[in-house]
């Protein structure tokens, strides 16, 4: 199976022409070894999808759990479906920490996404204080957060829909964290724990990714681990040079599917 490279553009870039250039770069280096999913901000998402929907896959960076109504600033699953979005990032640590999203809200969002055939990219990960408490404690935290964020699916016994989990240690994220990537060994070991948890709970179709300061110098170390199905990449994926390097490195370095 090919690995998945999800580009989380966050609040970048500032113009449609830059957004389009980034997309063109992704098209230029497209390879069957890697599935690229672009997650631009909503304004560029719609414009890009209308123009390039058959060429590459798209995800949104967030979504509200209600279908419509008086929710200023929010976007519904229906709006995303209507423009042809397939994936949606949910529970990113920046949403949790800056915008106060709770596990309960995130679990409702995951349920609404899955029930409407959007694939959630659910983010989980510990902050630095928890990480410093040691392996047992931070692993337990991540699994508890995962369980809480999936609780509506578990409660409703929805196990046969595609879900993606991104393990992103909060401290490892560039911009909102320290910007130091985790080690591939740890990413691999926690990815296995997450997969075990999902399997034991009855989930049937899942991928588990690593995210947090992935760049051209470490991308192959993460993507070449067999336990890691790919990556959620932020700042390096909106840097033209880094983005092209990463895709070329993966294309050269990953074994054939
Ligand atoms: P980063 O972000 O690659 O810039 O660290 C990853 C993410 O927040 O999804």
Explain how this protein is built.
The protein has 257 residues and is α/β, with parallel strands linked by helices. The protein has a single domain, classed as Aldolase class I (TIM Barrel, Alpha-Beta Barrel), CATH 3.20.20.70. It has helices at residues 16-28, 42-52, 77-83, 93-98, 103-115, 128-132, 135-149, 151-155, 184-201, 219-223, 240-253, and strands spanning 3-8, 34-39, 57-60, 87-90, 119-124, 163-167, 206-211, 230-233. The protein has an eight-stranded parallel β-barrel, surrounded by five helices. Helix 2 (42-52) links the parallel strand 2 (34-39) and strand 3. Helix 7 crosses helix 9 (184-201). The chain is globular. The chain starts with a strand and ends with a helix. The mean pLDDT is 96. It binds 2-phosphoglycolic acid (PGA). 2-phosphoglycolic acid is lined by residues 8, 168, 173-175, 211-214, 232-236.
**Proper CATH architecture:** Alpha-Beta Barrel
Give a count of the beta strands, DSSP E runs of length 2 or more. Answer: 8
Strand content: 15-25%
The overall average pLDDT, rounded, is: 96
Low-pLDDT regions: none
CATH superfamily membership: Aldolase class I
Strand order of the largest sheet: 1-2-3-4-5-6-7-8
| CATH fold name | TIM Barrel
Q: Work out the count of structural domains.
A: 1
Number of helices: 11
Q: What global shape is seen?
A: globular
Tell me the series of helices and strands, N- to C-terminal: EHEHEHEHHEHHHEHEHEH
Radius of gyration: 17 Å
Helix content: 40-55%
Q: Distance N terminus to C terminus?
A: 5 Å
* Distinct ligands: 2-phosphoglycolic acid
Structural class: alpha/beta
């Amino acid at each position: 199976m090919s690995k998945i490279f999800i580009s989380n553009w966050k609040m970048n870039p500032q113009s449609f022409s830059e957004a389009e250039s980034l997309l063109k770069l992704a098209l230029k280096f497209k390879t069957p070894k890697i599935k690229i999913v672009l997650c631009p901000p909503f304004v560029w998402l719609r414009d890009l999808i209308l123009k390039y929907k058959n060429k590459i896959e798209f995800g949104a960076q967030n979504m509200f759990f209600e279908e419509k109504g008086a929710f200023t600033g929010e976007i519904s699953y229906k709006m995303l479906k209507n423009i042809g979005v397939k994936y949606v990032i949910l529970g990113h640590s920046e949403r949790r920490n800056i915008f106060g999203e709770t596990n309960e809200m995130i679990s409702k969002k995951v349920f609404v996404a899955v029930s409407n055939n959007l694939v959630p990219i659910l983010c989980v990960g510990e902050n630095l204080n928890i990480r410093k408490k040691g392996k047992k404690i931070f692993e337990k935290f991540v699994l508890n957060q995962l369980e809480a964020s999936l609780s509506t699916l578990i409660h409703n016994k929805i196990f046969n829909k595609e879900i993606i989990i991104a393990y992103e240690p909060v401290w490892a994220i560039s911009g909102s964290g320290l910007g130091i990537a985790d080690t591939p060994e740890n990413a691999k070991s926690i990815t296995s724990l997450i997969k075990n948890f999902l399997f034991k709970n009855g989930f049937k179709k899942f991928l588990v990714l690593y995210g947090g300061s992935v760049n051209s110098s470490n991308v192959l170390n993460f993507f070449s681990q067999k336990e890691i199905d790919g990556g959620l990449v932020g700042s390096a994926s909106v840097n033209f040079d880094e983005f092209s390097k990463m895709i070329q490195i993966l294309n050269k370095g990953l074994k054939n599917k």
